């Protein structure tokens, strides 16, 4: 105490480990650099902003390598160095690799879309990098304030990205729906955080957990209400029922690379935040969030797969809508291990299955969107019927899409999809949630139909098939995106045991 009194400045100044915060910091600095460069570059030079964005994101991914040697933390309390606001542990690094790698693939997809759709280059690349910076910050956050700030930094640029096609009324409508739904969920979540703070007197996750275990008499209802409301904002980001209605219209109205970005980054942000608040901040309230998330998981996978099953192949934008509803169904699978963590002796091992599944889903879903972006260049309506005969026109793109769809379905040769589903399924069984495992099994069978129906279109006779007639050359950035996601999916399918090992080793 005397030392603090003698040096009051030192008592409140926190040290910053710049290497630890490098990945999100590089994305943030890149966003500012792109925004400033856009002001001074002549119009003919602005196409360079795309490759610069890709380079910044690649550098941010490489910035994860020096952090692999052990856990690191910064922005710690001077009075208690063990309590920190930013932690780079295996969970953080895995999710940061997912979001930054996915943002890199989305940037490659965007290089063609920005030119074809005449999107404002500077604004687009700035918003993409800013959102990626927030998404990379969130899994490292270990206090509720930083979690909410990171969530909004990741979300706010996304609203603008969805509405950047200013001449398209659907884009503006999608952005408005996305915005109104999201800010409502955020307001509810902020109220929950304020209730939790009032009940515990802290925002740091470790101290919140301690405070909730020893809640003062008379504050139990306030604490339970705060826990429930805090989860609402993160449940929205995961597109869990009943917070899923914005998904199909938003994906259709947004530029296709933005829809691909939201399908992966939005889920990664939501699930990493949900894991942190449930497993680290609210473990003593597992009896509240465990059953709730189990019911949400069952409803979400059922609603998503049922809606995907009802998509008519000849309907305009049916391919994007199917991917949108499929992503809702996949969100249900991702929720299963988090719900199981409430009943598990080692909750870290349970949520590891969510991280492993999310990595598989990110690779194959972005690959499917990459092929959809190619087909959309010659068939703007992007119907499922537009994929008829794709194999005759572009064998490599067709085989890649078929492989991605089989991975999502969990069928050979997409072995990684099967093993990731097994990892998720086993967490439900081990936690005693047999009914949830049964619901998941039924939904996996339902999903087989629409994934296989789309795959069949690819290899059908190309008579009258727009995709086959047009023979539009696959753009180089799209080729790179398809190749990267394809190589990752094939590599994981060749060594599927890595998914199960990863699910067991990524601990909080």
Automatic annotation (TrEMBL):
InterPro entries: NADH-Q_OxRdtase_suN/2, ND/Mrp_TM. It is a multi-pass membrane protein. The keyword Translocase applies. The keyword DNA-binding does not apply. Residues 141-446 form the NADH:quinone oxidoreductase/Mrp antiporter transmembrane domain. It comes from the Bacteria. It catalyses: a quinone + NADH + 5 H(+)(in) = a quinol + NAD(+) + 4 H(+)(out). It is an enzyme of class 7 (translocase). NDH-1 shuttles electrons from NADH, via FMN and iron-sulfur (Fe-S) centers, to quinones in the respiratory chain. The immediate electron acceptor for the enzyme in this species is believed to be a menaquinone. Couples the redox reaction to proton translocation (for every two electrons transferred, four hydrogen ions are translocated across the cytoplasmic membrane), and thus conserves the redox energy in a proton gradient. Belongs to the complex I subunit 2 family. NDH-1 is composed of 14 different subunits. Subunits NuoA, H, J, K, L, M, N constitute the membrane sector of the complex. This is NADH-quinone oxidoreductase subunit N. The gene is nuoN.
């Amino acid at each position: 105490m005397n030392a603090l009194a003698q040096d009051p400045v030192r008592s409140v100044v926190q040290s910053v480990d710049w290497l630890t915060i490098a990945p999100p910091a590089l994305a943030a600095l890149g966003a500012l650099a792109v925004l400033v460069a856009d002001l001074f570059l002549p119009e003919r030079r602005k196409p360079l902003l795309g490759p610069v964005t890709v380079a910044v994101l690649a550098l941010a991914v490489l910035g994860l390598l020096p952090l692999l040697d052990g856990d690191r933390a910064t922005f710690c309390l001077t009075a208690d160095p063990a309590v920190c606001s930013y932690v780079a542990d295996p969970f953080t690094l895995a999710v940061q690799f997912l979001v930054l790698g996915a943002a890199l693939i989305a940037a490659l997809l965007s290089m063609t879309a920005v030119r074809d759709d005449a999107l404002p280059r500077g604004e687009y690349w700035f918003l993409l990098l800013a959102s990626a910076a927030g998404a990379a910050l969130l899994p490292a956050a270990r206090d509720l304030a930083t979690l909410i700030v990171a969530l909004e930094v990741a979300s706010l640029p996304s609203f603008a990205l969805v509405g950047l096609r200013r001449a398209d009324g659907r884009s503006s409508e999608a952005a408005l729906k996305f915005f109104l739904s999201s800010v409502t969920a955020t307001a509810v979540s902020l109220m929950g955080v304020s209730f939790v703070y009032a009940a515990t007197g802290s925002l740091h996750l470790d101290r919140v957990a301690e405070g909730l275990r020893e809640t003062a008499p008379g504050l139990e209802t306030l604490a339970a209400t705060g826990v429930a409301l805090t989860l609402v904002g993160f449940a929205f980001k995961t597109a869990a029922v009943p917070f899923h209605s914005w998904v199909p219209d938003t994906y259709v109205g947004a530029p296709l690379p933005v829809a691909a970005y939201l399908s992966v980054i939005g889920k990664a942000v939501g699930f990493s935040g949900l894991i942190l608040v449930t497993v680290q901040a609210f473990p003593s309230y597992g009896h509240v969030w465990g059953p709730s998330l189990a019911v949400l998981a069952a409803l979400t996978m059922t609603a998503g797969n049922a809606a995907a099953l009802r998509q008519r192949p000849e309907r305009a934008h049916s391919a994007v809508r199917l991917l949108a509803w499929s992503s809702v169904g996949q969100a249900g699978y991702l929720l299963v291990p988090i719900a199981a963590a409430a009943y598990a002796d080692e909750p870290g091992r349970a949520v590891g299955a969510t991280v492993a599944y999310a990595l598989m889903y990110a690779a194959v879903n972005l690959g499917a969107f990459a092929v959809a972006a190619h087909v959309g260049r010659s068939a703007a309506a992007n119907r499922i019927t537009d994929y008829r005969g794709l194999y005759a026109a572009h064998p490599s793109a067709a085989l890649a899409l078929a492989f991605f769809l089989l991975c999502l379905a969990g069928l050979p040769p997409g072995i990684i999809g099967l093993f990731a589903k097994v990892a998720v399924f086993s967490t439900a069984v081990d936690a005693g949630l047999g009914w949830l495992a049964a619901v998941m099994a039924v939904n996996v069978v339902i999903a087989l139909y629409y994934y296989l129906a789309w795959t069949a279109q690819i290899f059908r006779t190309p008579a009258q098939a727009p995709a086959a007639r047009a023979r539009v050359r696959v753009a180089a950035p799209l080729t790179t995106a398809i190749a990267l996601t394809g190589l990752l999916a094939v590599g994981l399918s060749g060594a599927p045991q890595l998914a199960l090992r990863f699910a067991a080793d990524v601990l909080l």
